[in-house]
From TrEMBL:
This is N-acetylgalactosaminide beta-1,3-galactosyltransferase. It comes from Hypocrea virens (strain Gv29-8 / FGSC 10586) (Gliocladium virens). InterPro entries: C1GALT1/C1GALT1_chp1, Fringe-like_glycosylTrfase. Pathway: Protein modification; protein glycosylation. It is found in: Membrane.
Length: 503
């Protein structure tokens, strides 16, 4: 007799599942469920729905009738002292609008002096906030070390190696060896700059709370204050407003990898009272205690040695908080004075800020701007053209006339010299100036806008550094006269919010 008998059905199955048919049905159903699960995971992800605040503002140009805040003045350029020019500055506006200059100890001193003699010349120490990376005197102003009171996490984090340079700079100050070759060699002021932006928001509000607008600018920023004050008359300070010249920033992986924008710090940017409150708001518990960190700690993970720029970090934080940027280029311009391409986009539009402005241009613009106060309309690009009048000489050797609105001569044209390049421009009514890249390159470039350009000597280029290029530029006076006659500024074109230029 067998010790063990083969079981006819599994012991663990309940009696109701002993049927072979039912077992097959369960097996097939299980396979179908697994298949459906696999196909579900292979499906195309649904596009991320964009919330309203994630759509950048787009607005048509406007013809707002603004009024000047400045007192009437009649002066001659270059003949009046800074004090006399500043007598007409509307100090009452500073109860509503807060200027904030960002600099660094390592900034070029010639540029800083020009800034204090022009854009920032009319402000008393109580009216202007200056943020830097070192506590020190700038003229009769106190520059605040905005990095000094950040939490120790910034100093200890392994991704913040640049803090070593900040601490080294403070040690140099204590030892009296600042402004020496050691500092220039070892302190990278640009690398420290990115850490200033978020704490600047907190400190500016703490020092001057509830202003209508906060205007942030840099050492080489020139601001036409009358135009800026007029422009801000068109905005509600209690709305979430963040204004500037748009630059491409991070992509947002949580929202369909959408590209984002930030206001370039060089041309300056404006943040409203409403936006500052949103930026600095902290959640609280039932008994009033804060339940989250302050701004500069909450988003400190964005600041690390691989991050390029603090203005990009600020733009991303505002984006995360639901405040997209109002792009008002070219009124907020990232060009220097001599780089402006005067054309349809740069003629009847008010000019609010310039970037990369040379020290001489800063001081000259300041005196000239005050001499224009007799006009009741804002200063336009066309006025700035009259100020330095590019295109009043036929040709300049060792001169690069610019690069905007460039096009090539007709393919049938034989051009082997600057003289032939000049002739080709003269034959084309749409050509206002030309540029000959000579020597080994031998290239003629025609330009459809007016640019002043800058001196540029012959230089070597290419991988072997054996290719020589020199530059000669020229202007066609008759074409310029004809073009200017057509550019009538009967209406001031306040440029509406747009980001098309950057996207």
């Amino acid at each position: 007799m067998a010790l063990f008998r083969k079981l006819s059905r599994p012991l663990l199955l309940p009696p109701t599942l002993h049927s072979r048919l039912l077992q097959n049905i369960i097996l097939i159903a299980s396979c179908l469920i697994l298949l459906l699960f696999f196909l579900y995971n292979l499906r195309e992800p649904e596009p991320t729905q964009l919330l309203p605040y994630q759509i950048y503002p787009q607005a048509n140009d406007s013809i707002h009738h603004t009024v000047t805040e400045f007192l009437p003045i009649s002066v001659q350029p270059g003949t009046d002292t800074t004090r006399e020019l500043c007598d007409s500055f509307p100090k009452h506006v500073l109860t509503r609008i807060q200027p904030i200059l960002k600099t660094g100890h390592g900034d070029n001193k010639e540029k800083l002096n020009a800034q204090m003699d022009s854009t920032s010349a009319c402000f008393t120490p109580d009216e202007l906030i200056i943020f830097s990376d070192l506590d020190e005197k700038i003229r009769n102003h106190h520059a605040i070390d905005i990095l000094a009171h950040l939490p120790s996490s910034h100093y200890n984090a392994t991704t913040f190696k640049m803090w070593e340079e900040y601490l080294a700079q403070k040690e140099m100050q204590a030892n009296g060896i600042l402004d020496t070759e050691a500092q220039v060699k070892h302190i990278n002021g640009w690398a420290l700059d990115k850490f200033k932006f978020l704490p600047m928001m907190e400190r500016a509000w703490a020092m001057k709370p509830n202003k209508d607008f906060y205007v942030f600018y840099e050492t080489d920023t020139y601001i036409f204050w009358d135009n800026l004050f007029r422009f801000l008359q068109t905005y509600n300070p209690d709305a979430n407003i963040y204004i500037g010249s748009p630059s491409p920033g991070r992509r947002d992986p949580k929202r369909g990898d959408q590209g984002t924008l930030f206001a370039n710090g060089g041309p300056g940017y404006v943040i409203s009272r409403g936006a500052m409150k949103t930026l600095l708001q902290r959640a609280t518990g039932p008994y009033g205690q804060y339940t989250d960190d302050p701004l500069s700690v909450k988003f400190s993970y964005l600041n690390h040695d691989d991050e390029c720029c603090g203005d990009s970090v600020l733009g991303w934080v505002l984006w995360e908080l639901g405040i997209p940027m109002h792009g008002h280029w070219p009124m907020f311009s990232d060009y220097g004075l001599h780089d402006i391409p005067f054309n349809d986009q740069h003629w009847c539009q008010p000019l609010i800020t310039l970037h990369k402005t040379s020290p001489k241009d800063m001081v000259d613009l300041f005196s000239w701007e005050f001499s224009q106060r007799k006009s009741q309309r804002p200063l336009l690009y066309s006025d700035v053209w009259e100020f330095h009048k590019p295109g009043t000489v036929p040709a300049r050797e060792n001169w690069d006339g610019g690069r905007f609105d460039a096009f090539e001569p007709p393919p049938e044209a034989v051009i082997e010299s600057s003289k032939q390049c000049s002739h080709a421009c003269g034959e084309d009514p749409g050509c206002l100036q030309w540029k000959w890249e000579g020597r080994d390159r031998g290239k003629c470039i025609l330009l459809g806008s007016l640019q002043h350009g800058r001196a540029r000597k012959a230089e070597k280029e290419g991988n072997d550094k054996e290719t020589w290029v020199d530059y000669t530029s020229g202007w066609v006076e008759e074409h310029i006269k004809d073009w200017r006659k057509k550019q009538q500024c009967d209406v001031v074109k306040w440029v509406g919010a747009s980001v098309e230029r950057k996207f």
